[in-house]
Amino acid sequence: MRKTLIWTAIVLVVLFGGKYGYQKIKDNKIHTENKQAAAVQDTATDKTNNQKRAKTKEKEQTAKIGGVQYEIEIGADSTQDAVIDVMHKMTHQKVKAKEKWGAVPMIPDTIQQVYEIVSKSHFDKKEDLLAILEKWQKGQFDEVDQDHNYFWRYQDGTIGKAYGILSKEEEQKFMANNFGEDFVKEVSSQE
User: Fold this and answer.
1) Given this model, what pLDDT does residue 8 score?
2) What are phi and psi of 96, to 5 degrees?
3) Claim to verify: residue 105 and residue 147 sit in the same structural domain
4) How far apart are alpha carbons 18 and 120 in whole angstroms?
5) pLDDT tens for each residue of 130-142
6) How far is CA 122 from CA 98, 108, 118, 145, 153, in A?
7) Is the residue at 71 inside a domain?
């Protein structure tokens, strides 16, 4: 009888221990699955938030800004400061910056007009300005953010330093928002 009682006790301990162990494993599995689901949700939320921030930044870069002018409004008697101001505003169509004020269309016609003024000038920065304008005439805008910052520093800029270059699509949006859809169509037909 004593043997039966001992065996019964052992069987009961094993059964209860097995059930307790099984329940612990099951609880751990559920807990792990919940953690993984939460991590996936956090990743999805982060991705969504990053996409929203990117869209907001894009909108900021392509939004309508103040100080837009269609004509360069400079001539042979203009100062170096006035020419640099126009060239600076021309870069806004192509660069990413925290803030932008003023825009002049950077199209072959305006580039050529500014080039002619600078080439006939006696400006201190004539060589630098001609080098930049010659790149622009060739359609080389891979350093336009650096060009912008050259003008920005010359004008003692404190906010609005360029930190990148707009994509072609972003540039088109910027032009449409600031110069109008008709202007974009006209420029596109000339390319």
Assistant:
1) 72
2) -100, 130
3) yes
4) 95
5) 999 999 999 999 9
6) 33, 23, 8, 26, 21
7) no
Please choose, from the candidates 166, 189, 31, 30, the residue with its C-alpha nearest in 3D space to the C-alpha of residue 94: 166
Furthest-apart CA atoms within the chain: distance in Å? 121
CA distance 107 to 111: 6
Number of folded domains that form the chain: 2
Percent of all residues in the chain with a pLDDT value above 70, rounded to a whole number: 80
Measured CA distances, 76 to 69, 114, 162 (Å): 19, 9, 29
Q: Is residue 39 over pLDDT 70?
A: no
In a domain, 67, yes or no: no
Question: Which residue range(s) make up the domain with 121?
Answer: 80-190
Both 9 and 51 in a single domain? Answer: yes
CB 161 within 8 A of CB 152: yes
Do both 108 and 134 map to the same domain? yes
Query: Looking at the structure, do residues 41 and 117 belong to the same domain, yes or no?
Result: no
Considering the domain architecture, whether residues 104 and 185 belong to the same structural domain is answered as yes
Locate 131 and state its tokens: 């080098």
